[in-house]
């Protein structure tokens, strides 16, 4: 009997949350141990799944399918392919690091319970192959994130949490209508009501205008989640006010639910509509890249600067997705993971700065390098990975996106390249102001990195360097699924990938 590993990836954190919620609030250490054990177990399961995942597989592996609401065609249908594989592993590794490494300072029990519910929701979102099931998990994620920002955030936390909730709910309403309409309209082709993603994608034949309207419904929801310009305004507020753990998870995996959704549901379900909407989405992606970079340069708050950098980085992922070439989409998928590692680590380090100085204002931070050189060294490496320095993880994804998009989106790529230059500008300038110079009286007492913090950051650094130097294991698992998706797009639309001949 095979182990239902994907079901366990969802259920283990949920069971952990349930057990933790039943424990006494005063028994803080036991609650933390339960949360830690369940999140580590989930992480180990995700790593085991990665090891067992067959290299070169284009289809879904470890599939778990059981009827749920049979009269409506809703099923518990989970599966993982090369596109979702590393996002699941990233989720599995990131949560235990956040739980072990970041102190919420108050109400530990509630914080850890919400963290575990959030982990279950994210896992379910990346694994769901049923439209209704995906929507359930997509919405579950919203609740713990709202409470994490609203209760453990900073001064303007209620405003930021409410804004995040309203934006995401508004987007989700469009997707719900899209999901119901897709299932009912696909019924005439399939012969019965079904919310099964693969069944709808392979068997349905939507009319041109119908497919486009449905695509728009899905994409609005995902564009809010990414967030894509001009629907991005909730993100800087949410990031700035969220607790450090919330920011790491938000940057690490939550934003990827939007880019992943565009690829898994938007492009796969409505290939013709994706080709039709390509110019608009490429334009919005490039605007996001440039706008995010310029806005980041203007920020006085270090955390808000990193938040705006996410708008720019996620623009690159959307650019790769809708360039619709093998290299570009592969680079986009890789960049989802890379951004989660690099920006998650940046938010972690900004949180460490705040714990020491109780400020994130760039003008009040100066000369940290002189008193905490090891801390500065970690920050430098992580920052350079975010810029996209060759040899580090950020370079591989961005390079593949740009080179893969050149044939089908040349002028968009030319414009997007300015975003790479601007990223170097705002991050290096921020580093200069925070770490260089002579420290003033307040910064002279800035504490060096602790062993615990160094061990925590070393996990991120190891992933940054390994992926940058040797990306082949990732590419070998991502590419077959991307190739299969593009073959599906070509079969269900008039789109054909440009042929790159040998020697060109």
Task: Describe the protein's architecture and organization.
The protein is mainly α and 504 residues long. It has a domain at 270-497. The protein has helices spanning 5-22, 28-52, 82-101, 108-127, 131-140, 142-152, 157-190, 197-203, 208-225, 234-241, 244-254, 256-269, 271-297, 302-323, 326-357, 368-371, 373-387, 393-405, 410-435, 441-444, 451-469, 472-491; strands at 61-69, 74-80. Helix 5 runs antiparallel to helix 7 (157-190) and helix 11 runs antiparallel to helix 15. The model has no long low-confidence stretch (mean pLDDT 87).
Please outline what is shown here.
The protein is 75% helix and 3% strand.
Task: Give the helix/strand layout.
Blueprint: H1 5-22, H2 28-52, E1 61-69, E2 74-80, H3 82-101, H4 108-127, H5 131-140, H6 142-152, H7 157-190, H8 197-203, H9 208-225, H10 234-241, H11 244-254, H12 256-269, H13 271-297, H14 302-323, H15 326-357, H16 368-371, H17 373-387, H18 393-405, H19 410-435, H20 441-444, H21 451-469, H22 472-491
Antiparallel strand pairs: 1-2
Helix pairs in contact: 1-2, 1-4, 2-3, 2-4, 3-4, 3-11, 3-15, 3-22, 4-5, 4-6, 5-7, 6-7, 7-9, 7-10, 9-12, 9-13, 10-14, 11-15, 12-13, 12-14, 13-14, 13-19, 14-15, 14-18, 14-19, 15-17, 15-18, 15-21, 15-22, 17-19, 17-21, 18-21
What distinguishing features does this structure have?
504 residues, mainly alpha
């Amino acid at each position: 009997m095979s182990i239902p590993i994907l079901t366990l990836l969802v259920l283990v954190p949920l069971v952990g949350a349930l057990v933790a919620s039943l424990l006494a609030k005063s028994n803080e250490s036991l609650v933390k141990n339960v949360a830690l054990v369940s999140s580590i177990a989930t992480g180990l399961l995700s790593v085991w799944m990665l090891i067992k995942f067959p290299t070169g597989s284009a289809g879904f592996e470890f599939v778990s399918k059981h009827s749920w609401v049979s009269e409506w065609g809703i099923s518990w249908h989970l599966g993982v392919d090369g596109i979702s594989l590393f996002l699941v592993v990233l989720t599995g590794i990131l949560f235990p690091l956040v739980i072990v490494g970041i102190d919420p300072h108050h109400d530990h029990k509630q914080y850890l319970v919400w963290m575990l519910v959030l982990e279950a929701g994210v896992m379910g979102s990346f694994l769901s192959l049923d439209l209704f099931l995906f929507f359930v998990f997509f919405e579950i994620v919203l609740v713990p994130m709202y409470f994490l920002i609203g209760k453990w955030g900073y001064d303007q936390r209620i405003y930021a949490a409410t804004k995040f909730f309203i934006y995401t709910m508004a987007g989700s309403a469009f997707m719900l209508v899209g999901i119901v309409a897709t299932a009912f309209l696909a019924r005439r082709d399939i012969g019965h009501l079904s919310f099964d993603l693969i069944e709808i994608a392979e068997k349905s034949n939507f009319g041109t205008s119908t497919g486009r309207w449905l695509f728009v419904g899905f994409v609005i929801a995902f564009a809010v989640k990414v967030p894509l310009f001009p629907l991005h305004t909730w993100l800087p507020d949410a990031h700035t006010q969220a607790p450090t753990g919330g920011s790491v998870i938000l940057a690490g995996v939550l934003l990827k639910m939007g880019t992943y959704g565009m690829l898994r549901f938007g492009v796969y379900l409505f290939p013709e509509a994706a080709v039709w909407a390509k110019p608009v989405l490429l334009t919005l992606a490039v605007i996001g890249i440039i706008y995010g970079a310029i806005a980041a340069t203007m920020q006085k708050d270090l955390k808000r600067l990193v938040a705006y950098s996410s708008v720019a980085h996620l623009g690159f992922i959307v650019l790769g997705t809708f360039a619709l070439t093998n290299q570009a989409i592969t680079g986009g998928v890789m960049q989802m993971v890379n951004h989660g590692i690099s920006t998650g680590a940046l938010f972690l380090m900004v949180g460490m700065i705040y714990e020491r100085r109780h400020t994130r204002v760039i003008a009040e931070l100066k000369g940290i390098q002189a008193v905490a050189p090891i801390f500065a060294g970690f920050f430098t490496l992580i920052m350079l990975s975010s810029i996209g320095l060759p040899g580090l993880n950020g370079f591989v994804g961005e390079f593949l996106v740009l080179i893969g998009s050149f044939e089908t989106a040349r002028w968009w790529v030319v414009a997007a390249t300015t975003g790479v230059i601007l990223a170097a500008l705002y991050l290096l300038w921020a580093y200069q102001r925070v770490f260089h110079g002579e420290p003033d009286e307040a910064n002279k007492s800035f504490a060096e990195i602790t062993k615990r913090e160094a061990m925590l950051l070393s996990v991120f650094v190891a992933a940054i360097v390994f992926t940058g130097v040797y990306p082949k294991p990732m590419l070998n698992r991502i590419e077959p699924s991307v190739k299969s998706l593009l073959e599906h797009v070509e079969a269900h639309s008039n789109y054909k990938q440009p042929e790159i001949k040998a020697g060109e």
